[in-house]
User: Which sequence fits this backbone?
């Protein structure tokens, strides 16, 4: 992803002082929370990001391995993403498909809707009022779903879609086909991995389960970092206040939505006033219209539902309680935060499934919370690889990325760890040397590191975990797992 001469930045300040306007922002740093603060301080303008249809190339990234070594990034780059109306997930500010009077899809592409509902906009000609127009779904009148939103548009959450094609039409003469996919997936990623173990409480084999809501808060006590449980019926006395990047000051209370899509967990966190309602037509005013997506590091394959990561270095190194996580910083500035277990590379290293998971979760967000101004990704190591690869293969999911503890290039990381694995086979078996004598320091010199221990750690902790089919993985018992001698027909982790 080489930057063009027109987009090379001179300093972080030069990069961050410009709004995200039709460009993909990339930044790298060893301290994502610090860089994120600079972004939310400098890029408060909305971005009208255009869309090109994302490819559905199935990129399986089992070779995209990651290390927990932090790398200080230099400059990022920005480059145009798309040419037409909106990106996947509706990041436009007004967003949607079609133009002029009539119906337009806001929450996703019309052929990739999931979960039996879709957020629509009804655009009226100058001589028509809302009561003059009738909208039907498969012949059923859904006109009452539409109402004027807080920004003056007529929005409607249309529910009750049936599996497959649905016909949405209006008395203005337009007719749209909405393709509805199961909440449990898939949409475009292909046959789902089997076997699969759902979470406790799942209602069916696709891990469907009603969303659960809970409240958190940030304490004014500096010895209580992060977010703490909050009970609206018995509020604690140490709730901090925060001021968003739009200048709204309010208690630092967060609502978390936890649910399941594509057979795995998602989380949505928003700065929230428990006394008020929040709908896509009328979001609470402290939301700035922006979304941060967090990712996890490492690279692996699970056969069971997992947990959606939030911390900056999830899957790589333990969190430092002395440093505020960037998702907490983002919430305090008015951003919403989204994460899915399937965008955690240590849990799922399949790029097509990662993209599908994020597309479905963003659709859920838009339908329940409102249309987006733009979306920024953040993550370390394997989390940076997910961002680089998805931004390239599925344009429109992000409008900016914060790739932490990254690599000079994405494919080079997998090639390096493959080299380590093969060199260990040679160096650690002197019978292969012939007439040549090697010292441990010479091992390291060939491998390009100070010590051969680096190759050992990368091979044992990363390469084998990702590529060895005999390696244990969640959801697969020892009896089910592949063994080239005792169980050659078993499940390959």
Assistant:
């Amino acid at each position: 992803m080489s930057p063009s001469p027109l987009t090379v930045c001179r300093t972080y300040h030069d990069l961050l002082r410009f709004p995200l306007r039709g460009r993909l922002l990339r930044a790298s740093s060893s301290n994502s929370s610090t860089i994120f603060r600079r972004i939310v301080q400098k890029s408060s303008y909305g971005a009208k990001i255009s869309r090109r249809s994302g490819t559905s190339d199935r990129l399986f990234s089992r070779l995209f391995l990651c290390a927990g070594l932090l790398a200080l990034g230099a400059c990022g780059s920005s480059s145009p993403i798309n040419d037409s109306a909106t990106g996947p997930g509706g990041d436009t500010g007004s967003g949607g498909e079609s133009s002029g009077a009539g119906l337009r899809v806001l929450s996703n592409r019309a052929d990739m809707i999931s979960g039996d509902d879709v957020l629509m906009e009804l655009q009226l000609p100058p001589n028509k009022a809302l009561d003059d127009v009738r909208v039907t779904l498969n012949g059923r009148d859904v006109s009452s779903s539409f109402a004027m939103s807080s920004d003056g548009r007529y929005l409607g959450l249309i529910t009750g879609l049936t599996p497959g094609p649905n016909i949405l039409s209006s008395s203005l003469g337009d007719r749209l086909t909405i393709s509805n996919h199961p909440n449990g997936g898939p949409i475009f990623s292909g046959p789902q991995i089997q076997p699969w173990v759902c979470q406790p409480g799942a209602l069916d084999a696709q891990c469907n389960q009603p969303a659960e809501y809970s409240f958190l808060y940030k304490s004014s006590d500096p010895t209580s970092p992060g977010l703490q449980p909050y009970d609206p019926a018995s509020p604690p006395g140490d709730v901090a206040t925060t001021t968003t990047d739009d200048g709204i000051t309010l208690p630092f209370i967060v609502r978390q939505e936890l649910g399941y899509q594509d057979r795995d967990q998602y989380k949505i966190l928003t700065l929230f006033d428990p006394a008020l309602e929040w709908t896509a037509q009328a979001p609470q005013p402290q939301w700035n219209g922006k979304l941060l997506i967090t990712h996890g590091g490492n690279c692996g394959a699970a056969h069971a539902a997992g947990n959606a990561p939030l911390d900056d270095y999830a899957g790589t190194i333990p969190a430092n309680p002395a440093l505020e996580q960037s998702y907490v910083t983002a919430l305090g500035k008015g951003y919403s935060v989204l994460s899915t277990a399937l965008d955690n590379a240590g849990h799922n290293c399949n790029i097509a499934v990662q993209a599908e998971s994020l597309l479905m979760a963003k659709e859920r967000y838009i339908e329940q919370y409102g249309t987006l101004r733009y979306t920024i990704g953040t993550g370390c190591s394997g989390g940076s690889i997910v961002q680089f690869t998805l931004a390239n293969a599925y344009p429109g999911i992000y409008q900016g990325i914060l790739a932490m503890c990254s690599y000079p290039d994405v494919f080079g990381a997998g090639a390096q760890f493959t080299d380590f694995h093969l060199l260990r086979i040679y160096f650690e078996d002197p019978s292969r040397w012939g007439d040549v004598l090697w010292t441990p320091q010479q091992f390291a010199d060939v491998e390009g590191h100070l010590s051969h221990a680096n190759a050992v750690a990368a091979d044992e902790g990363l390469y084998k975990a990702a590529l060895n089919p005999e390696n244990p993985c969640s959801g697969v018992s020892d009896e089910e797992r592949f063994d080239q001698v005792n169980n050659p027909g078993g499940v390959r982790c």
